[in-house]
């Protein structure tokens, strides 16, 4: 049975532009997950198919981000509506003639709710790759879908699996889209977010004198600094009880010069590395510090990086890479590395599109924190549709980098 999605607005409230069918995907071993097939409102097809592979964390089929608190140093915190990037992609493409399949990650339900903590807690890279393969097989066998025109789109961690599926299904997959792609291994990705990014913020924003030091007081009061992504108050300070009450003070362990300034390289960076090791059990040498090592973490450590995988994607599979230049989770450098690898192996059909003011969810964002305050920017959806619907791949027309 189909359900309709209507356009907003009173005048067009009865006009349906898409329809969808709910599907349950059997993942094997008694486990299943919910999915949705989005179709154009008119016609029986067959329509070109596209599978959406969600990113990291407990992602539902829409990649619902939850209500987002935007932090501003001057105005404070503000709550904004949830972003749903895969909902936006599915609706936009199905309105324009594609059959789009979305699915919840195993153990996850609507609104990023964990339904089964055991399933979710023991998830592996192989599990997620196999789940994406199952979803692809379901999509191919839908009567409205043209099995000879098949594309995959992954976001963030999901980009790890669309490259693998393209390699494993060379006669099926025509196009892959990597949105905010992962390029490096788990340690490198975590290190960038937990160490490199706050260090860059300290150097570029807080180090006003460019002498390698930042003010303790300013660091404690800077709202953005505390969100990238470790709480620096907890990381660098200790509570001291005085006659006038409890006050925060730089922890002597991380105050080598016993003053009111933090040395970025000698005091801040070591603490960030220590806290990363404690919070995420991430060390480059030890690999996994917990005994026993969690299944999901061991799996991430052992996964072959996407930078090595992408060179094996068949030459007759077209590749599109989309990345916001303000992406604070998978930085633009990752996309450039992937493009360099594809150029090195002379892959004949790959395209990179970048967006100067957009973050990880393709919404306007600063370069320091991911803003998930609303729908994807229309230009990204337009570029995605234009690339997918142009079989000739007019490079001069399609591969314009949005850098202005």
Automatic annotation (TrEMBL):
Gene3D superfamilies named among the record's database cross-references: alpha/beta hydrolase
GO molecular function: carboxylic ester hydrolase activity
Domain of life: Archaea
Stated name of the protein: AB hydrolase-1 domain-containing protein
Record InterPro entries: AB_hydrolase_1, AB_hydrolase_Est10, AB_hydrolase_fold
Domain AB hydrolase-1: 85-363
């Amino acid at each position: 049975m189909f359900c309709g999605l209507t356009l907003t607005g009173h005048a067009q409230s009865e006009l349906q532009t898409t329809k969808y069918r709910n599907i349950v995907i059997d993942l094997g071993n008694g486990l299943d997950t919910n999915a949705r097939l989005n179709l154009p409102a008119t016609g029986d097809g067959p329509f070109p198919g596209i599978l959406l592979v969600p990113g990291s964390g407990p992602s539902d089929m829409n990649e619902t981000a939850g209500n987002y608190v935007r932090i501003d140093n001057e105005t404070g915190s503000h709550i904004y509506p949830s972003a749903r990037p895969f909902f936006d992609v599915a609706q936009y493409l199905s309105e324009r003639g594609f059959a789009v399949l979305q699915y919840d990650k195993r153990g996850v339900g609507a609104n990023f709710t964990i339904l089964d903590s055991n399933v979710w807690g023991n998830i592996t890279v192989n599990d997620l790759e196999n789940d994406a393969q199952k979803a692809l097989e379901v999509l191919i066998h839908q009567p409205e879908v043209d099995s000879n025109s098949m594309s995959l789109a992954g976001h963030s961690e999901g980009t790890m699996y669309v490259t693998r599926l393209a390699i494993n299904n060379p006669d099926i997959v025509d196009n892959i889209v990597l949105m905010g792609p992962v390029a490096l291994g788990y340690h490198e990705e975590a290190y960038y977010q937990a160490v490199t990014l706050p260090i860059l913020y300290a150097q570029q924003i807080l180090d006003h004198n460019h002498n390698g030091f930042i003010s303790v007081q300013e660091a404690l009061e800077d709202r953005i600094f505390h969100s990238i992504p470790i709480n620096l108050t907890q990381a660098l300070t200790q509570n001291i009880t005085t006659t006038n009450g409890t006050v925060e003070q730089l922890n002597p362990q991380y105050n080598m010069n016993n003053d009111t300034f933090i040395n970025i390289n000698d005091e801040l960076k070591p603490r960030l590395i220590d806290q990363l090791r404690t919070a995420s059990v991430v060390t480059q040498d030890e690999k996994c510090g917990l005994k026993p090592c969690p299944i999901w973490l061991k799996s991430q450590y052992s996964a072959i990086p996407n930078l090595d995988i992408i060179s094996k994607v068949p030459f007759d599979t077209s590749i599109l890479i989309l990345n916001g230049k303000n992406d604070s989770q998978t930085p633009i450098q990752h996309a450039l590395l992937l493009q360099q690898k594809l150029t090195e192996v002379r892959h004949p059909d790959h395209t990179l599109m970048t967006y100067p003011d957009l973050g990880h969810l393709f919404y306007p964002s600063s370069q320091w924190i991911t803003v998930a305050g609303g729908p994807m920017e229309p230009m990204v959806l337009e570029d995605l549709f234009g690339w997918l619907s142009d079989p000739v791949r007019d490079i001069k027309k399609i591969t314009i980098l949005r850098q202005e």
